[in-house]
Amino acid sequence: MFRFQEPTESCGMVRKLNLDAMSVDEIWQLHETVIEVLAARLTAEKHALEKRLAQLHRDKDWSLLNSDEAPLSPGGNGTHEARKYSKVSPKYRNPNEPTETWSGRGKRPRWLTAALRTGHKIEDFVIGAGEPENGPPQST
What we know:
The strands form two sheets. This protein has a two-stranded antiparallel ribbon. The protein folds into two domains: 3-65, no CATH class; 87-140, H-NS DNA Binding Protein, CATH 4.10.430. It is α+β, with helices and mostly antiparallel strands. The radius of gyration is 35 Å and the shape is elongated. The protein contains two helices and four strands, in the order ββαββα. Helices cover 36% and strands 10% of the residues.
């Protein structure tokens, strides 16, 4: 047997409900009432928290204005720049299309995957130490 306490209109009085004795329509009406009350309370609580958060931000901004500290952004100190990565030299070259290279980072290119499936070894595609990045040495 389920028991539910429904708040009444008067001064916090609580009335016990016997859900087993209620009809489907009565339970559905109770459900609708609970949803309305819950939505109103959650909205009120959200507004109160937003108001408190705004007050805390105002207090923090005021204290920062009176100090020598710089305000902090959510991601850090506000002066964060993107990390500079050096260019990675290619380590592998497609012998059939010398302009297609791969540094060995990220997803393996289709030309290399296809060649490995046909029985080649990845070492077959390593760029030689003396070979320039833009293609194999051209014979004249």
